[in-house]
Structures are given as structure tokens and as C-alpha cells.
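Predict the structure of SHOCT domain-containing protein.
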Amino acid sequence: MSHALTAIAAAHWAGPFFGPWFLLVPLFWILVFVVLFAIFGRRWRQRAMDGGYGPDGGVNPGRQAETTLAERYAQGDIDEVEYRKRLEVLRANAPVRPGR
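Done. Here is the predicted structure for SHOCT domain-containing protein.
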């Protein structure tokens, strides 16, 4: 009789919750969060470096205009005098962003 009770207790405690599945369920969820962070974390960090979220976040138009101007100068479309003149105008008319 005692062997039967021991077998029942062993079967109960060695059920699906305390077998190898007991360790695999938390590992599965940890893996899910790691994959999500790997996919979206890079986008969140890049977006934060580009100016953040919100109505005034995102691509900085002044920086984008300076980049386009520098590319035109590098390709030879404009000379140095024209480049410096336009760059000065861009920087003089750049909107002041609050909090920066």
C-alpha cells in the first residue's frame, strides 16, 4: 500500500509542471522578449538619436537640407563660394526648437 501511495505522489509531483517543460516555458518567454527587443530596440534607439518622438521629432529638416547641400558640393554641382553662401542662409534661417 505504501508503494502505491509513493507512486501516486511521485506521479503527481513529477507531472507536467515540474518536468522539463517547467523550465522551457519561462525560457520561451525570455526568448520572445529578447527577439522583440532586438528587432524594435534598434529602431527605438535610432529614432531617439534622430530627434525623438512627438510632433517635432523625426528627421530634422535643417540637417537634411545641409546634407543635400554638402552632397551637391561634393558632386561639383556648386562651387565653394555658393556652398558657403547657401549654408550660411540655411543656418541663419534654421528654426529654434524648444528644449534644445
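The helical segments are 2-13, 21-49, 61-75, 80-92.
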